[in-house]
Amino acid sequence: MLMRAALALAALPALPALLAVPALPAYAAPGDEVTAPLTELISDLPVQPEGSRDGYSRDRFRHWVDEDRDGCNTRAEVLLQEAVRPPEVTGRCTITAGTGQWYSWYDEETWDDPADLDIDHVVPLAEAWDSGAAAWTAAERRGYANDLGDERSLAAVTDNVNQAKGDKDVAEWTPPAASAVCRHTTDSVVVKTRWGLSTDEAELAAINRIMAGCPDETITVTIAR
């Protein structure tokens, strides 16, 4: 009787792959440090259709805060970190135009006025919302929007290039400089891995297409969420 039952179970068809529910990788716990080939990180990204953008607003991601209360908000911190020539800083944290220099790697342009630069969320706020952040707490969204814990999360880039990118994901936008495409795509994978964000089929296909022409480097990521 037991043998017949076992044979009957073995004869049942496997559940279709479409019924499988994407799950976060087993290592996805805050504080975990993951070192793996980029292709492995890509294959571990949860694949799900984008969620509804209902309720989204940039205000839901409180950004440019002064987390360490040193007078410099997140925008200023990124400008200071990425300056090719360190700028003069006056008062609490005023960065004077013409005293520093920044290289926008998205378009290979150099600027000496911080007003010409935007701080880009490599994975845009709206894309993060679509990819899981809609269900986050306000504190988690604030942490994401001001993520100084990984230099690949935020980038000082030419303002009109950032505005052209808007809330587009990798399937919809890549940097105008050919030299930046692999790096931008890699950083997008890092951010999604770090924050446990999903990707949809179109974005995953674009990531795989782009990365087929890029080195499969070994990446280290510290999980934030």
Write the layout of secondary structure elements.
Blueprint: H1 2-11, E1 33-37, H2 38-44, H3 74-82, E2 83-85, E3 89-90, E4 94-95, E5 101-104, E6 109-111, E7 117-121, H4 125-130, H5 138-145, E8 154-158, H6 159-165, H7 178-195, H8 201-211, E9 218-222
Antiparallel strand pairs: 1-9, 2-5, 3-4, 5-6, 7-8
Helix pairs in contact: 2-7
Strand content: 15-25%
Unreliable stretches: 1-24
On the 0 to 100 scale, the average pLDDT is 90
Note the total helix count. Answer: 8
- Quickly give the structural class: alpha+beta
- Within the largest sheet, what's the order of strands? 2-5-6
Total DSSP E strands: 9
Terminal-residue CA separation: 49 Å
Shape: globular
The profile of the biggest β sheet is:
3 strands, antiparallel
Q: Please tell me the total number of domains.
A: 1
Radius of gyration, CA atoms, in whole angstroms: 21 Å
Helix content: 25-40%
